[in-house]
Design the sequence.
């Protein structure tokens, strides 16, 4: 693999157990720059554990995680903080602050990662740009309680984008949304990929979302990378463990 083709995220033989429960077993994957990789598996299969290990919220028992070509296990707290500023995380719950306006929610990451001079000069424009990206510029002074579920998801994505992350991790981005809004969010994820050339990992059970957003899909079964292929190709696998995910599509 050439330098230009080197993966942005690389996981090698990752294992993680909780007591006698082996959640991840020698799991490996590579995520190329600018691609959307979906992790598909049943509830409790280890998808969220994998994400938490990648951003060092959990420590794996064994294995190697490289981000931007560097072993993250060697990072101290300052290096991890700088790395996380380059990684956006869209929480399943959206994690908006109910007591803050949309503007204040979006400015919150800037207060942590930008100095006062940067915020004074560029915060307003940054907020407006990401709101325009998600089609909600008119909500800037609204409260989260005034927004629909789909709008809150878009605002959460806008907050994820405001630091212009190179990596985005999506945790069940369409859960709890009606099918039409779910499709809108899925197409928005594609727009983000194209505009920001973002490298993304998407955890999802929503087969329509996976079909729309994925460049590649990993089937996480029994703690292992059971299969990896395109969504279209996986639909035609004869393996019953894979086929059962597609029975409703």
Sequence:
């Amino acid at each position: 693999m050439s330098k230009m083709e080197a993966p942005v995220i690389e996981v090698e033989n990752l294992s993680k157990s909780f007591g006698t429960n082996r959640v991840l077993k020698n799991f490996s994957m590579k995520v190329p720059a600018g691609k959307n990789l979906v992790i598909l598996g049943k509830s409790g299969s280890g998808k969220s554990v994998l994400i938490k290990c990648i951003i060092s919220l959990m420590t794996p028992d064994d294995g190697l995680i490289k981000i931007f070509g560097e072993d993250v296990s060697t990072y101290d707290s300052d290096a991890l903080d700088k790395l996380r500023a380059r990684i956006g995380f869209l929480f399943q719950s959206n994690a908006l602050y109910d007591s803050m306006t949309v503007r204040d929610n979006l400015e919150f990451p800037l207060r942590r990662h930008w100095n006062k001079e940067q915020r004074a000069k560029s915060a307003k424009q940054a907020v407006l740009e990401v709101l325009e990206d998600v089609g909600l510029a008119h909500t800037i002074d609204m409260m989260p309680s005034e927004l629909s579920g789909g709008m809150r998801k878009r605002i959460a994505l806008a907050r994820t984008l405001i630091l212009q992350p190179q990596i985005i991790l999506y945790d069940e981005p369409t859960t709890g949304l009606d099918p039409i809004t779910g499709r809108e969010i899925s197409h928005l994820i594609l727009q983000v990929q194209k505009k920001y050339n973002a490298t993304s990992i998407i955890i999802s059970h929503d087969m329509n979302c996976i079909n729309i957003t994925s460049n590649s899909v990993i089937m996480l079964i029994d703690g292992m990378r059971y299969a990896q292929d395109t969504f279209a190709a996986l639909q035609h696998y004869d393996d019953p463990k894979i086929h059962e995910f597609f029975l409703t599509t």
